[in-house]
């Protein structure tokens, strides 16, 4: 598995606009081979910004790379950079190979 993350330092006062840009867009990612899940995260508040991160889980690094070269990726990012910038700097990309993955243990009750 592979995790692709982008960190965004969103200017204070622009949080809702940033969130709506993400929540109202068609990301085109749900139908991509190897896509597992996506999360948009809101983090701590700092003096001049609020930290956000996009967190995408892929079946493999190769699946993620294929996504970045796809027409769907271009369509999802077509309007990136349009309008007034809501961030204090460019997004910071971080990619991680997953070494361990756990899910909750399922405890089933047996009926008597």
Description:
It is a single chain. The chain has helices spanning 15-23, 61-68, 71-76; strands at 2-11, 35-45, 49-58, 92-97. The protein has 112 residues and is of the alpha+beta class. The protein has one domain (2-97): 2-Layer Sandwich (Alpha-Beta Plaits), CATH 3.30.70. The protein has a 4-stranded antiparallel sheet. A hairpin with a 3-residue loop joins strand 2 (35-45) and strand 3. The termini are far apart. The model has no long low-confidence stretch (mean pLDDT 89).
Order of helices and strands: EHEEHHE
What would the CATH topology be?
A: Alpha-Beta Plaits
* Count of helical regions: 3
- Rg result: 17 Å
How many beta strands in the DSSP annotation?
4
Strand order within the widest sheet?
A: 2-3-1-4
Task: Indicate the overall shape.
Answer: globular
- Sheet having the most strands: 4 strands, antiparallel
Secondary structure: helix percent: 10-25%
Distance between the termini: 40 Å
- Return residue spans where pLDDT drops below 50 for at least 5 consecutive residues: none
The CATH architecture is 2-Layer Sandwich
How many domain regions?
Answer: 1
Q: In CATH, what is the class? A: Alpha Beta
Report the portion of residues in β strands.
25-35%
Structural class: alpha+beta
